[in-house]
Amino acid sequence: MKKFDFHAHIFPDKIAEKATVGIGDFYDMTAYNPAATAEDLEKLLKQHGFCGATVCSVATVPEQVPKINDFLSETVRLSDGFFAGFCSLHPDMTENEVGDEINRAISLGLIGVKLHPDIQTFEADSTRAFRIYEAVGDRLPILIHAGDSRYDYSSPKRIANALTAFPTLTMIAAHLGGWSEWEDSAACLAGKFGDRLYVDTSSSLYTLSPQKAVEYIHTFGEDLVIFGTDYPMWDVAEELTRFDKLDLSETTREKIFYCNYRKLTQKFNF
């Protein structure tokens, strides 16, 4: 059975430890790996039988965006097809900067956009966000952090508003659509946007009971859920163990591990 990790973060070696600790501090958690490098991630994933991963990083200021995207594209190139990259954008970029960077990211071989409203401090249905959605249109999928009971930037309702306002937009709402807000996610997002809304399993299985996780997977639909580890927050092996505990058919597992990711990329001709 093919396995693909749809949601992983990596950083250049020089800043990997600082960036990883920063993520852990933001969530008041200790990350599994204190230095999230591409080399370490590739080693772990191959050790556990993965055929690849989507890698991304989040720009905290607009000036970081080109450097991050250069790093991601070079990492993808050097991985010989093991990694796929989702580019970074920032809501404080100008309209022209957003459009130019999307074009550049596509030319670099990056196949999606990664946004994190809580870290980047913007509402997912704000004017700042809409400028990005307008520029992305139907060209790339957007992997968006979803949910945080401490803030209201990425609430499932705001993500639903964005998808309603932009009917050609395709999003993957991370963390089963709403980290720490799973009931709201199911109510606001499930079954409302067809194949324009996927969710991934990252940073969910560590806290949801196996029964509850299966319930949410079926609520969103087995054709719209993609496996993700959220490395470096969680150990690849532990995420596999958690997923193995779920009462799912082999067909459903195949879809979540790989087939749904492949279906998403084919939608965008990647």
Brief sketch in words of this structure:
This protein is an alpha/beta fold. Helices cover 44% and strands 12% of the residues. The protein has helices spanning 16-26, 38-47, 65-78, 95-107, 117-120, 127-136, 156-165, 182-189, 210-220, 236-244, 250-267; strands spanning 4-9, 52-56, 83-88, 112-115, 142-144, 171-173, 197-200, 225-226.
Topology:
Blueprint: E1 4-9, H1 16-26, H2 38-47, E2 52-56, H3 65-78, E3 83-88, H4 95-107, E4 112-115, H5 117-120, H6 127-136, E5 142-144, H7 156-165, E6 171-173, H8 182-189, E7 197-200, H9 210-220, E8 225-226, H10 236-244, H11 250-267
Parallel strand pairs: 1-2, 2-3, 3-4, 4-5, 5-6, 6-7, 7-8
Helix pairs in contact: 4-6, 7-8
Describe the structure.
44% of the residues lie in helices and 12% in strands. Helix 4 runs parallel beside helix 6. It has a single domain (4-267), classed as TIM Barrel, CATH 3.20.20. The two termini are 21 Å apart. It is built from 11 helices and 8 strands.
- Given helix and strand content, the structural type is alpha/beta
**Count of DSSP helices?**
11
Q: State the fourth-level CATH superfamily.
A: Metal-dependent hydrolases
Report the radius of gyration as a whole number of Å.
Answer: 17 Å
Unreliable stretches (pLDDT < 50, length at least 5) are none
